Amino acid sequence: MARHIVLLRGINLGSRNRIAMPALREALEEAGFEDVRTYLQSGNVVLTSKDSRQKVALACERLIARKFKLEIAVVVRTRSALAKVVERNPLADVAKNPKRYQVSFLEGKPSAATLKKLEAAAAPSERVVHVGSEIYAWHPEGVARSKLWTLLAGPGLGVTATSRNWTTVTKLLELADG
Length: 178
Description:
The chain is an alpha+beta fold. Helix content is 37%, strand content 25%. A hairpin with a 4-residue loop joins strand 2 (34-39) and strand 3 (44-49). The longest helix has 16 residues, at 53-68.
């Protein structure tokens, strides 16, 4: 049995794609997942399963479609993979505000052209680093007017992705360890 971090893309944003976390926890437990915990209202789940992360992602997507009538992309990381994301922390020397430091979790590898677009979109104060299946982005002035953030948050990456700020990333690792 392994701990998995399940990241739902684009739920509970305004009035769109609403899923109550208690209902999600209950549905996941009924589906056979164990020790299900959620964090915040933005689709962060830690659970235990014997299945691979790919099987967990597919099972969660199907469950959400069936139970909540929503087509939601799901990205899953194992506890050890998330620990490596935190260990790596390639922008630790500049990213001092965890709320403005984002990690985008990817299901595939973006093209070289896409990565060049991200680098070109970054404002002079911003930083972006692609490592493995993640993109780390530092937005010292916030994301509201960031062209880089617009690209990271939208469908233009060419792969399924969802982002979390550093506070959430480290809290999810704590939950996975707890």
